[in-house]
Specification:
By secondary structure, this protein is α/β, with parallel strands linked by helices. It has five helices and nine strands, in the order ααββαββαβββαββ. Helix 1 packs across helix 3.
């Protein structure tokens, strides 16, 4: 009898409980994703004109046109979601796994990864995903004297993950609850019977980050957090490479 490595088991689990789900609900999911989150919008709008960056796990590409003065290469594991993202001219969109990004290292001014890393089902894979993003960024200048100055730290990445601390939300999660959860997505479609709808429920895997966990994962991935916070049931961090 063959054995399954932990990483192989994680890949199969994510294939079933993340990737396959988004392929099936892509159209419905895209129709609900159109409003930029404020911190992400601010991050993109503060970038220097001409900056070139990445949107890792871009979904339908809703962030691609936030700042018309930058160019973004967007990627997602879902073929069907990339079809929506590719409609945002002039930006580029590719199908790619965020653990194996098809981009040159040390090349980009910025990256965003919004609500993606929490879909990786093990701690090593989440750290690996963050490391893959950081590797694409321009390294900090060797002569940098002021590490708190965001304008002179090389490339920077904004990473968002769902928070465990959501007691004020409709989900009600909080400290002490399980961090690895299945979250339903209910997709409704029109029925052949007048006045009725059909519904199908899909379950997606999430790792809920507790306070301070994202910063620790960034550090383990070889990065340094220069700004972080909490916004609307999410933890976020802006990170740069250590070297």
């Amino acid at each position: 009898m063959g054995t399954t490595s932990p990483d192989q088991g994680s890949q199969e689990y994510e294939e079933q409980h993340v990737h396959n789900v988004y392929e099936q609900v892509a159209s419905h999911f895209s129709s609900t994703r159109y409003k930029p989150w404020p911190i992400v919008q601010r991050f993109l709008q503060e970038l220097s004109p001409g900056s070139v960056g990445l949107d890792v796990g871009c979904g339908n590409g809703k962030y691609l046109n936030v700042n018309p003065n930058v160019f973004i290469v967007a990627s997602d594991r879902s073929v069907n979601l990339v079809k929506f993202a590719s409609q945002h001219y002039p930006h580029a969109s590719v199908v790619a796994d965020n653990l194996s990004l098809p981009h040159p290292s040390s090349s980009f001014d910025f990256a965003i990864s919004v609500a993606v890393v929490h879909h990786l089902s093990s701690h090593p894979r989440r750290v690996q995903a963050i490391a893959a993003i950081l590797e694409t960024l321009q390294p900090p200048p060797e002569t940098e004297q002021n590490p708190s100055n965001l304008k002179h730290v090389g490339g920077k990445a904004l990473i968002y993950v769902w928070a465990l601390e959501q007691k004020a939300s409709r989900r009600g999660w909080d400290e002490g609850d399980e961090q690895d959860v299945m979250v339903p997505w209910v997709m409704k479609t029109k029925s052949t019977q007048v006045g009725k709808e059909n519904s199908e429920t899909f379950h997606r895997y999430y790792h809920l980050y507790r306070q301070g966990e994202l910063e620790r994962d960034v550090a383990e991935a070889g990065g340094r957090v220069v700004e972080s916070g909490y916004e609307k049931d999410n933890w976020w961090a802006i990170a740069v490479r250590n070297k």
